[in-house]
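Researcher: Hi, I'm a grad student and pretty new to this. My advisor asked me to get structures for two proteins we've been looking at. I'm not sure of the right format, so I'll just paste the first sequence and hope you can take it from there.
Model: That works fine. Here's the first sequence with its structure tokens right after it:
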Amino acid sequence: FSPSGSYFAPKEGDYESYIEYARSLPLIAHPEVFGMHANADISKDQQETQQLFNSILLTQSRASAKGGKSDDEILFGVAEDILHKLPKNFDTEAALRKYPTTYTQSMNTVLVQEMARLNRLTE
């Protein structure tokens, strides 16, 4: 049912074989399950990020109404928490050595560029 082959109709079997098949499926459904391109995952992630920040703004209003932390303190606290959960910066030079940019492997270029963008974003 999917290009990756992860989703397929299991062979006929007993109850346990179906349970085992269901357990082998990814916990987070990839867009290909629904017939969508992988970029749909990016759109979903952007929407989730927007919801997170909307929730932060709602929390911010309530906290200031109760005499809690200031707006800036709440935002800085959430931002700091998110930054602590992020992985360390990517080693783009090591990535270039392992995945050299060649004419036949354009994804190598994209990989290194995206790693550099994330590094700049989290600095």
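Researcher: Oh nice, that was easy. Here's the second one.
Model: And its structure:
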Amino acid sequence: RNNFILSELNVHRVVITAILLAAKFFDDAYYNNAYYAKVGGVLVSEMNGLEVEFLFRINFSLHVTPEVFRKYQDELVSHAIGAGLETPRKANMGDVSKLPSCPQPVAPTPMIV
């Protein structure tokens, strides 16, 4: 199961799946898989499969400590700076655990046709 290679052709699938799972993990109200599939440009059946595959690959371990979050954040920013996508920030974000939580999404209103 470790034969996964992240590429520019599949990174959007990984990102949309991670966002979907993060929303389900942290929020009581979240959009359904069909919504994320539409945003991610994949079929609902593929989104459902990506969700299951992602969970098994991370051994259903969705909790990330602030220290691990900071480590990966720093590494991503470092890569972004090296690629010219980001400029170094002067302000230190400090303790990640003290960051405010994001507001919950507002459920989309159903369309009457």
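Researcher: Is there anything I should tell my advisor about the second?
Model: You could mention this: The two ends are 44 Å apart (CA to CA).
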